[in-house]
Amino acid sequence: MNNSDLDTLDNIPVGMTVMVIDDSKTIRRTAEILLSEQGCKVLLASDGFESLAIIASDRPDMVFVDIMMPRLDGYQTCALIKGHPEYRDIPVVMLSSKDSIFDMARGGLAGSESYITKPFTRNDLVAAIQKHVKPTDVKKEAESEQANDDMDFDLDDFEELEMTL
Question: Pairing relation of β-strands 12-13 and 8-9?
């Protein structure tokens, strides 16, 4: 898909790829339905660790990540994405049922662009996409696949991050 082939629906590039990382199947499914209705391809992961392989193989245009998850939480996942040279430009939006200033600030320190409190609405997701992704940001599929052939998350990166958090 070429950038010139992209149309928009509610000012969202049709065909953009969005990843939703949440340990709640209900939240993942809700986000998938809402985003699919907007023309997005939706990738799903139940925790941060599972998401890393998907990000490396499919390189989403945007990531929504829950904070509280098993194995690799949202802060760690965001920091790994933002710490990787190939993926640091992917916008990451934190999702959480907590709305404390501390959680928002910690998300910002991990590198997230913004924060949405659950339960979220269609408008919350659309507004985040409109704010952080422009039609020209959506990668061409072939370009994305070529870059991903040479890039992967290194387990050493995760272990180093774990020591700092």
Answer: antiparallel
Distance between CA 158 and CA 34 in Å, rounded? 31
Q: If you ran DSSP here, which 8-state letter would residue 96 be given? A: E
Structure tokens at 4: 């010139």
Token readout for 141 is: 């599929």
Euclidean distance between CA atoms 22 and 35, whole angstroms: 15
Phi, psi of 65 (to 5 degrees): -130, 130
How confident is the model at residue 46, as a pLDDT? Answer: 96
Tell me, rounded to whole angstroms, the distance of Cα 49 from its chain centroid. 13
DSSP-H helix ranges across the chain: 25-36, 48-58, 74-83, 101-110, 122-132, 141-149, 155-164
What is the DSSP annotation of 30-47?
A: HHHHHHHTTT-EEEEESS
Q: What does pTM read for this prediction?
A: 0.79
Is domain 13-131 given the CATH code 3.40.50.1820 in the classification?
no
Q: What is the reported pLDDT for 152?
A: 56
Looking up tokens 């998350």 gives 153
Q: Measured between alpha carbons, how far is 17 from 64 in angstroms, rounded to an integer?
A: 11
12 phi and psi, to 5 degrees?
-110, 130
